[in-house]
Every structure is written in C-alpha cells, then in structure tokens.
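Handout, section B. The chain below has 816 residues.
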Amino acid sequence: MNANPPILQLEMQARGRGTGWKLLLPSGLMASSLLRNGYALIANSGLTAMLGLAFWFLAARYSTPEAIGLGGAITATIVNLSNAAQLNFGNFLVRFVPTIGKRAGRLILFAYSVSVAASILVAGIFLLVVGAFMPKLDVLTESAGVMAWFVVTVAIWSVFALQDSALSGLRQSIWVPLSKTTYQFVKILLLVPLTLFGLGWEAIALSWTAPVALFVLAVNLLIFKRLVPATEDTPGYEQRIHWQSMARYFGWDYIGAVSMMAAWTATPLVVLNLVGAAESASFFVAWTIFTSLYYVGSSMGLSLLAEGASNGGRLRTLAADAAVLSVVPLLGLVTLMVMFAHPIMSVFGAAYADAGASILRILALASLVSAVLSIYLSIARTKGWIRSVAAAEFSVMALALVLGAFLVRREGPIGMAEAWLLAMLTVTFGVGVLALATGRRGSAYDWALALAAASKRLSSQLFPWRPRARTQLPAEADLAPLLLLIARPDALGWRPFEAEPGPDGTVTVQLGEHAADVCGHRGEARAILRRARDLNAITYIERQIDNLDLMQAEPRLMAFLPLLPSRLAVRRTKGALDCIETAIVGEGWDDFTRHPAQLQAGLAATAGAIALLHGRTSLPHKIDEDWLREWVEWPAAQMRNLDRSLMSRARREQVLDLFVERQRGYWSGRELGLGWCHGDLQPRNLRFAGTGSDPVKLAGILEWGRARSNAPDGYDACGLAIALRAISSGEPLGAVVADLFWLPEWRPDEKAWLAASTSDGRGWSDDAGATRALVGLVWLHQVSEQIRRPEGGGRLWIAANVDRVLRAVPWEGGAL
C-alpha cells in the first residue's frame, strides 16, 4: 500500500508554513491535527475515567451491593462481547478511512454492518450458554424482552465504539471527548431517578445503555451528513487499495489486537487466582491507574496512525512529534507517580499504600515504555508491517503472562508489575534493534535528528524566550522621495501596507493604494519595495539588479521577460539600499496549488519556463578549472571551518575531499550547455495565474539575487524537486539529499515535469550519476549560502543539513 505521492501531499500541509530550508516552527501546538486529535483522545480517556468513577460512586450510594454487582457484571459483559464482535475494525477504520477518499463512507458502513451482524451472533450464542457457565446472569434469559434488549444493546454498543474510530480516521477526533463526555453526564443523570423509581440492577444497566442509541444516531448524522461529504469534496489523492490488501491487514492486526485484549483481561485474573482477593486488591488499584497512563501513548498512537495514513511522506516528522508530545507529558506524570506513589495509594487506605506503592511505581515506568511501543506500532501499521505488529503484541502478551505467573508465585502481586515492565522493555528494544538493522545506514541518525527537531519545536512553543521580531513598515515621509523617482502618475498615492523578511536580511514591503474596502482589505500590491540595511542584504539586492539588467538586455529572452519584475526606482545611501520594482500579479504557491490538477499544471508551466530560460541562453562549454572552482571548490570551502558541527574537523575534511573528488569526476571535461538559472527556485518564489477553465500560466518568478549565467541544464529543476520533497515530508534539506544519494531515483509524478524542464531533451532525471551530481551541487550552494551569513546555522541545523549529508557521502553509490 503506497502512501500519497509527496507531490500531492503539499495541499495537505497547514497553510502559512514557510518553504525555506530552515527548520520552521508550527504556529501553535494545536495547529497540528496530529496533536489536536491525539490530545482529544487522551482527554476523552481521562474524562471518561473520572466520570466513570463518579457514576459508580453514586451507584454505591443509591443502589444495593447486589444491584451494583449484577448491573456491573451485565454492563461489563455487554462491553466485552461488543469488543469481540467489533473484529478489530477500530484500527482498520483509523488506518484506511484517511486514504480512500470518496469511499470512506462506504467503508465505515461496511465496518458497522459486519460488527452489528457479529454482535447479534455473539450475543445470541452467549444467551444460549450463559445459564450453564454463569448462572448468576440467568436474569438475562428470564423474558424475551430482556433477551432482545441484550442482543440489540450489544449491537448498538459496537457501533457506539466504532464511531470513535471513524471520527479518528476522518481526523476529527475532537468530537470524541465531546460526545463521550456528554454521554457520561446523561448516564449519571439517568442513574439516580431510575434507582429512586425502585429498579435494581435494571437501573444501572438501563442508565448505562439507554442513551447509547441517541448518541449513535447523533454522531453518525454528524459523520455522514457533514464530515464524510466534507472529505469527499476536498481535492486530494485517493489511494486505490484492494480489498485483498485490506483483508491481509485486517487478519494480522486482528491477531495482535486479540493478543493484547487477552493480556489486559487475563492479567488481573492471574493475580487474583494466584494470591487471592485480599492480596490482589492493591494490584487492581495500581493496574487501574496504569491503564489510564497507558491510554496517553495509545491515544497519540491512534492519531499518528490516521495522520500517517493520510500523509505517509511526513511519517518520520509526524512520529517524532507524536513521540515527544506524548512521552514528555507522560514523563511528568510518571515522575509524580514514582515520587508520590505512597500518598496516592494511601487515598484508598493504608493497606493499599503499603502493598501497592511499589507496584504503582513499576507499572508507571511500564506505561512510559508502552508509549514508545505504541508509536512504533502506529508506524508499522502505516507502513503495512502488520506481521511485525502481530508479533510484537503477541510477544507482549506471552512474556507478560508467562513471566507474571512465574514471578507472582515467587514475589507476590509485584511480580506481575515486574513482568509487564520486562515484557514492554524486551519487545520495545527488540523491535527497535530490528528496525535499525533492516533500515538503511543513517536511519538512527535521522530519527535522532527528527526527535531533536520535535523537542525544539515543543520547547519553542512552551518557552518562547525570543519572540519573533515584527518587521516594521517604512515611514511614509521616508518613502516619498523614492516614489518621486517613479515615472507613473499613481506612484505618489502608494503606501506601504505589509512587510516581511526577505532573503539575506532584506525586507520586502508591499506598496499599494492606502484605502481599504469595507472588509478592511487593501487592493493588490502595485509595487514591491526591497530594503537593505547591512552588507549582505545590500549585496543581494545589487546582484538582483545586475542579473535582471543582464537578462532584460538579452534579445533571446524576449519571450521570458514577462516573468521578470521590472525596476522602477533605486536609492543608494551610505549603508542602505532601497529598490522599488513592479509587483507580479498572481497567486502564491500555497493559494494556487490546493487542487492536484492545478499543482501538476503549475509545475509543468514552471518546467517550461526553466527550459526556456536555460535553452535560449545556453552556450556550449567544456567544464574547466575556473567553473569547478566557482561551482564546487569555493562553496565546499565554506564548510571546512564549521565550529558547530558534530563531526570532527579531520573527518569533515576527509569527507569533503571525497565529495569534491566525486563532483570533479562527474563534471570535469564534460561538454555542456551552460546558461542562465534562477539559483533559488523554491515554491515561495513562484506566482501563478489561471483557474477553472482558464489554462494555468506561470505569472512570474521572484528573487533573482542568486541567478547565474553559467549553470548546467537541470540545476533549477533539481532544486525545485528537492524543495518539494522537503515541504511534503517535513524533513530538512539534508535528509532529502541523503536519501537521494542513497537512491538517486525520481518518482513518475516528478519525472513528468522534470522531463519538460530540460532544454536539450536528454532527460537527466533518468541518469543516476547526473541526479547525484546535480543534487550534490544544489545542496552545496544552498548550504554554503546559509553558512556564509552572519547568523550562520545553529548546531541542530548543521547536524541536519550538513553533517547528515556528509555522513552519507562515503556510501554514495555503494552498498550500505
């Protein structure tokens, strides 16, 4: 089962993200649907547990112990039979609903139908044998009405449980705590009147089950009337997954789910049977707390499964975020449990504290390990490693129960806690070693960097020590003399209305009409002011002015000139430079590429423009030492004296020498056509026009400060392809480049537009050697541009974008 092609995942990104090479922070923790849905599921588990305790507290006050015992046994039976009849469709829906587009509604209905049929069958069989095996529950067979109620309730409860998975699969888990919390309140409100009315076990059973039908109706109206149609109307990629593939997933995952269900059910029973009711009481309390902690990791794992299934190209970034954002808060809870286990258990009585404090501490540590294992299981389910999932969950069950039975006989109830900790540690360590052993070289380094980046994003959100400075608009009085230089009658009416940082420390200011419409929106920008107040920024703008002048003076580029901005005015003063140029009217990348068809057409238009620029200016040239010094030696020299690199200086020198040698080996002496390139062709620098029935056109290309007149064919296209991969995967530049060194192949959707970007029609994207050479060249210049700036790159940035690639260089083209 293939994940969405990254080229089509771009529309799934949160709008407003930058597209540069730097590691960027989300606008807020809840801006991520992964975290929003994960924390919604965690909140649901916590609220359900607290309100469940409140329900039983009231039941103990208003009902007899006999009624509580029988009512609790009946409701537990309903839930357990329903769990068995759901046939693990919960994980199935979370995995496949995000991926099948317009068929999501049919898949949800299929899961409901099969589970309802299985529930009726299981409940009917249970009623036939209950008298022989559980005579205390023979009240369920006293009348046809009670039997019918029981069977229908088990069936409805299955839908009640599966609708949460449907919401998670639709990436709308925020509705789960809302519906479940409301249900819990209704259940509590029904309990007291029913008990006062004189009902016994019926009061507990009816208050527990009567509201379910109402909530099933309400939530599924929401799902099928609002959420599913919204998913169908959203442009996106629809995977073609065969039912046979789903069946294989279902079968193995069901084995794993049954294994874990058996482990959870059997654990307290093993302790009870081996040590007796009195000695096992403290274990049951600690086990209940452990269950709540376990749901922190498993809930985030469910959210990761839904997000990873819908956006497989970003799986590593999503998994790192899920791990950090579940393990960090869980670590705090576990620390409290370990430090204050005795006072927590003493709430239930002194005997519970004396016997159960150590049990709680061990189980709390096990919950921390289980969170890590839950993240792995979600990754494995997303990637289709379902046998690995089944093996891991079966191993946990076997190790926990076998070791538990042995240790409980020797040490008492604490032995079962030790068995669960050992089982979790063994399986988690085992799957980690297996994953790293079967993965490519450097995968452990990549995961470490992803976790470090996720931790940095979290710390930056929680502790914003350095808030981002706002870019100030220039004063109108300062701007007026510059506007006088423009030979346009409307120029004096232009006012600055939006400013943002530009490349190399420049500031970009939009100029337009000062008046706003009734909604407060100003019209389109009439011109762009570029401001520079330091040497790097001035150098960048001067280079852009020179490059644009040279291209606009080139007669062979007449067809290309409409894509370029035109200079209107320049003001140079000591230590400052202001340049006003025409604004290119068109939509930016994020606004334009919401639909896959527009995205592909936009890429095709961009590829054509790249081919036109290079093809019209290309001249035959034999690669000589001057070209190699400019394109290879000089940018490589920028990396030889990094003071924040994780690599030793000697090792970095050795690898850089090897990298330069390979670049020289490919380029030296080749007869190539060298011509103009943009030099920094990223999505943020593109503007488009044409929607609906109109043909898609490239309206313009911005930021020409890094353009060169002697670039090899394919340089711009390769840079854009790398940028698109970085955006769609959420990975830094270095990880994308290292992957391309390892496997220098382009996907069919990438080749479709890369072929059109080649001016000589030779198709460099089909050549592994050419791909490695161009990828290395793009990486070399992007990284050297960042390093030469005064701020350089932070230690994490260098580790992710420099060290990661240098670690891959010795293995480039070899067996890893």
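Note. The chain has four domains: 31-241, 273-469, 476-582, 589-811. Compare this with the example in section A.
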